[in-house]
Amino acid sequence: MTVRIGVIGTGMIGQDHIRRLTHVITGTRVTAVFDIDTARAEEVADTVGARALATGREVIDAPDVDAVVVTSWGPTHAEHVLGAIAAGKPVFCEKPLATEAEDCLEIIEAETAHGSRLVQVGFMRRYDAGYREMKKVIESGAIGVPLMVHCAHRNATVPASYTSAMAAQDTAVHEIDVLRWLLDDEIRSVQVVTPRRTGKRHAHLQDPQIMLFETAEGVRIDLEVFVNCQYGYDIQCETVGEDGLVRLPDPAAVSVRTAGRASTGILQDWQGRFENAFDTEFREWAESVANGAEPTGPSAWDGYAATVITGALVQALESGGIVRVDALEKRPAFYGGDTR
Amino acid sequence: MTVRIGVIGTGMIGQDHIRRLTHVITGTRVTAVFDIDTARAEEVADTVGARALATGREVIDAPDVDAVVVTSWGPTHAEHVLGAIAAGKPVFCEKPLATEAEDCLEIIEAETAHGSRLVQVGFMRRYDAGYREMKKVIESGAIGVPLMVHCAHRNATVPASYTSAMAAQDTAVHEIDVLRWLLDDEIRSVQVVTPRRTGKRHAHLQDPQIMLFETAEGVRIDLEVFVNCQYGYDIQCETVGEDGLVRLPDPAAVSVRTAGRASTGILQDWQGRFENAFDTEFREWAESVANGAEPTGPSAWDGYAATVITGALVQALESGGIVRVDALEKRPAFYGGDTR
Amino acid sequence: MTVRIGVIGTGMIGQDHIRRLTHVITGTRVTAVFDIDTARAEEVADTVGARALATGREVIDAPDVDAVVVTSWGPTHAEHVLGAIAAGKPVFCEKPLATEAEDCLEIIEAETAHGSRLVQVGFMRRYDAGYREMKKVIESGAIGVPLMVHCAHRNATVPASYTSAMAAQDTAVHEIDVLRWLLDDEIRSVQVVTPRRTGKRHAHLQDPQIMLFETAEGVRIDLEVFVNCQYGYDIQCETVGEDGLVRLPDPAAVSVRTAGRASTGILQDWQGRFENAFDTEFREWAESVANGAEPTGPSAWDGYAATVITGALVQALESGGIVRVDALEKRPAFYGGDTR
Amino acid sequence: MTVRIGVIGTGMIGQDHIRRLTHVITGTRVTAVFDIDTARAEEVADTVGARALATGREVIDAPDVDAVVVTSWGPTHAEHVLGAIAAGKPVFCEKPLATEAEDCLEIIEAETAHGSRLVQVGFMRRYDAGYREMKKVIESGAIGVPLMVHCAHRNATVPASYTSAMAAQDTAVHEIDVLRWLLDDEIRSVQVVTPRRTGKRHAHLQDPQIMLFETAEGVRIDLEVFVNCQYGYDIQCETVGEDGLVRLPDPAAVSVRTAGRASTGILQDWQGRFENAFDTEFREWAESVANGAEPTGPSAWDGYAATVITGALVQALESGGIVRVDALEKRPAFYGGDTR
Q: Which end of chain D has the lower number of beta carbons within 10 A, N or C?
């Protein structure tokens, strides 16, 4: 049985997911789309034999739509997710779940009232083979109780439109989700340390930033976010426990020896780095929809946590101090089975 | 448009390809199957909504079969491939194309008479990301003209039914194909060197073996085949050129530091190692069928070459001497565009 | 011409240096020693044909002593170093130069009054091949202006006598010196973050600790000190600059593939890790003495800086806040040529 | 007590050993030298306070010479080694022990008649930390009984004077010695395979060459000798046993990430690669001399074996066939304790 999917938002990421749902994932078909740019919506719809509808609501309510993918502009996410919950349809929402914590809470309330999980948030790192293997090692007890995590998130460059706050909201948000999941723990406070800025940046931007986190269990995380590192797209993660450590691998690549150096290539963009993770993410999500099961990926609570924590980071960057994250202390029982 | 596929042979590898064509590759569907074990054929057919037919011929001729996959017992391959050519249908044949060189030649003649390529042989390594990257490096000229290749093909263990000749026929055959393709060159002679046998083998088996190849261009290849190496499934390949070398990567895996050692896991079987290569292989083949294009993968000539060269290896193992491979000197123009 | 050396302090480290000066370094000879444990002093003296004298002062003043090595108990260092300066003799003092900043300043004043450098402090990392290569890379401009450094200093275990303050005084002190030298920069503030404690420690000990430094140029350094990491002695250092990064190598070690894992050994103690660095340190120091030249290694100012910064770390560990290091802002011209 | 050494041959390697014996190794002093270039001998002697004598014989017989180092032109080695044996003095002879097997046998007879070992041959790889660690792993049984060894010996370039035979005599000779020692086994046959020649060579030279060895125990060794590989000096060795494998490490070097590549430097010459091995070699030899003990390094028999095997390689290169090495089957009891 084919899962029929409606996609709200046909920008770059929307188009990529439509391609994925059409050509990579078996058992899924995009039947309806919406975008505020009507012409673009129709163009995209045509390439896959879908209809372009007049509103997100029409996509959600269409009888030939079994599940919804939300990839529109961030501030509109909440509206569409709430619409899907109201319609009782599974919804995959790209990060952020909502740009405001209050909207996330409204989604949580609506989903809780619905009585079963409908929402999955698009944090794809949980589907990356390396992170999954790291989680297995941690859960096996091989490195003992986790005490520290050292991370780096580096991009070669970012456009001028990238702001200092986006280091938290758009970049660190991926580590925030994957670390909460890796450690099965919650973040309790954040701090942002600001190194000398790279001269190879746009003038307004604090780059790099070092973000420090403390979890409920006392694990300390340091995360270097450096989005103009020049040399490539490079994701590093090392978890140190009582008995040892586990480190995320670099992507496999041929090694070359020429002219006095042994070298391997470094990826230049995230698409190559997380392509397989995106595929697995949608494959597993589509399976849960096809089986009428609750999604097993990042929940609305995880989406709320990410928004709260990135908000605290932005505040910490401005204040220079430590910002506590109290809002996440009481996780509702409804979401308890997912990560804790 | 969905490509409808008939599968001849529903053993382990046949079932895996049926799973792949049904659940992994988009745009393909298995509609008919045949196996000499009728019960098994029906059982497998049921799982994917296909029909089990009475003969391979019926599968080939079925009107709802656009293309054929042959995964039956090796000695029956030729019959089914010839049948598909006669029916003018694209056929994907697992290695070997045929167990006898004469049968390969008959297929070549039939395909040549047909006038366009219909046959693709199942050598999946050409679709492995590492080998593809290695080929790009070689073709870029970065390491200069290739002079030598050092390879190893190691399995943790093999069953008692594995014979010394199978080291060539079942194991080295993959390196033979991928090296001819990597180097865009032809093998001209072979030799087999026999090290002290591992004590951890079945008594009849010469294991390990070191196979030596010389190509038309004078490249020298050494290939260690060691199928009871105990520690894991391990594929190594290093191409040395006039200016440098390029080495196949080990699969990416988390590294762990515990108890005085830094370590990474080694795969235990080929499924994990070449899973993505199999998927890409079928995805690209299915696309060529869907587009009505000739396949771009290993040709009948490549299948013939593999059978001739593995035959020479078996002869060299018995004789202890160097065996020339003369049959491949004149590649027909029909196959000229493929690898040379 | 042989350099005749007097050694004050014949404990474990003193004995190791005596062995080094006798059997490893050419051109040096130990002629006189002192230790408050007279019996030990005599025993050690006998093994190398030296005399055991009654006081450190006698060692310093002995006519057959060209230069002095101080490896006694930390709190006695200042007295002996001042004595050597008064005698106008070169003195190599194991870290710390003095346990109190005031004593370091007194040494600085005495040396400045003397008019040329006589003091070298025993920070051996500057002589490690890996750190030296890293410094060359940084100075070459290959990674651009340094922005961040990520470090880890891990010991398998420490004895019960090890205190939380020693994480700064005995352990981090090595990174402090080598980072000031690597970056040719000064530390301006410190902070200590306290992760969940390992259960595999003595009850009184905060282990691990994460130390954060900011330099005058705005470089941010994070240093994990984890002295009961169980798995081995492991020193990591990565400097990130505007254009790239450079990482200290792990010590070379054979790699082994057995039982499903590819692994290399990790050292268990610092002796193996820095043996060559110690040898080079003494070889270069002995050469400077033989040539009547000023020493080129860590100066009294570097020793003072280390004492001030480790003091600030201990204060930061207690307070939980950021501690500024103002004392190092004005480096005397006399020491200006050494690191800035 | 200082060991007083006479050095015969003050060319480049002789000068390097004189520097080592004077400035690096403690407890040794060069007192007399000889070279057929009298002016050079005197100049070198002056730098270390030694005398330049008129003949090698005079050096050997000088009363202030306790032990002799022979680093003269290869064809003269035998004469000086025999002279030292006649004088009953320990002699360290750079490889080859003698260029002719007969001369090696004469040395063996003389030393056997003397009744205790006096001769050590200069194969420094046995003193390299990596090879030593590899030998420990093999002897520990961790990889099981050795079955195969894969080696590569690559130089960036060689001068025009380098001949095809020197690939065996000057280059492979190091692997021959270290492999006999690593495996505690003897070579029984050799074969040389000739790949396409690199275009970046002098016209007369067969480069690269692949040398194949079979040992008495049936171990098969393949050794790539490629002396114009352009990219650097690169020594590789991998021993494969019944249960696993062990691989020589690359020299430790900082890794750098810049401009899309992660890379480490490759050494350009053997001096850097084996500097520490040379030092250890002489340190251990000097200790044996100082202690009046027999040397524990490569023996006259090992020197004979190297000459016999390199001779067989040259013959195999010319003939293209397999050349048996029968001369080494009966190792005299006198040499039995050393490697078997």
A: N
